[in-house]
Each structure stands twice: as C-alpha cells, then as structure tokens.
Design goal:
The chain is of the alpha+beta class and about 150 residues long. Helices cover about 30% and strands about 40% of the residues.
C-alpha cells in the first residue's frame, strides 16, 4: 500500500502544472527601443531629450565616457545626415519590471560635414522605466571592422 501511495503522489507531482511567475511583456520595451533608434536616425532632438536620462553614461566607440549633451549633439549635428539602418542580431532583454536592454549590430552610414562615412557598430542601450515611460541610462558602442564588399 505504501508503495502504491508513493507512486500515486509521484505521478500527481509530475502531472501537476507548474505555476511560473508572470513575466513582464517586453512589448513596451521593444517599442521604446525601436522609437529610440528611430529618433536618432531622424535627428529628433526633442524626442532624444525626453528619451535620454539626464545622468546618461555614454561610452563611445573609442571607449571614452560622455554624457547626455554629447550623445544628443552627436546625433543632431546640422551638417549630419544618416542613411536608414537595418539592425541585425537584435536582443531585447527585460531586466525586471523597470529596466531592460536593447542590443544590435548595424552599419551606420551617411554624411558628416559633407563627407561620406560608413561604420559597423554593435551597441547596447540600457533603459530604466521612470514613471510611465522609459529612458536611456547607459549606452555602450563598440566599433567593428567592416566586412569586405
């Protein structure tokens, strides 16, 4: 009898549904990351000012640390124009309810001060929810070699 009860309990435990903790949907984080990338390419200073935290830490492709003003000025220069981008190896990773990251690789190209440029980068943006919206709080860019064409 004891063996039968042990086997029955084991069978119930195996068949019992596992109640996982509900996960925060990444949809709003993904939407913010996409809007943030679009604001950069569109050179939308007002949007970037809202989307970037005042205490932003920005590590550029050379490894230097800058802040919010430098980051926004770098995307909104009057003599700069960016081509549309395609992101590859995109990762959107919620880090709890109020934080998350977006990372991808892309070729960034366009014109700066009348000169054509083309660079390949991988970036990681860390976002923090503040109130009912997200803000970029940390951005790290790594320059990569361009593939031969």
């Amino acid at each position: 009898m004891r063996e039968y009860c042990t086997a029955a309990i084991a069978a119930m435990l195996i068949a019992a549904p596992v109640h996982a903790q509900p996960q925060e949907p990444a949809a709003d984080l993904r939407a913010f990351a996409n809007a943030f990338d679009a604001a950069q390419i569109a050179q939308d200073r007002a949007a970037l000012d809202r989307m970037v935290a005042d205490d932003l830490v920005f590590i550029d492709g050379s490894g230097k640390r800058y802040g919010k003003a430098f980051f926004i000025d770098g995307w909104t220069g009057a003599d700069d124009d960016y081509d549309p981008v395609t992101l590859s190896d995109r990762v959107i990773l919620p880090l709890g309810r109020n934080a998350g990251l977006a990372s991808a690789e892309t070729i960034l190209s366009g014109r700066s001060a009348g000169k054509l440029f083309r660079v390949r980068i991988r970036f990681t943006d860390i976002f923090k929810r503040r109130g009912d919206s997200w803000q970029a709080t940390y951005i790290h860019v790594t320059r990569m070699a361009l593939d031969p064409e």
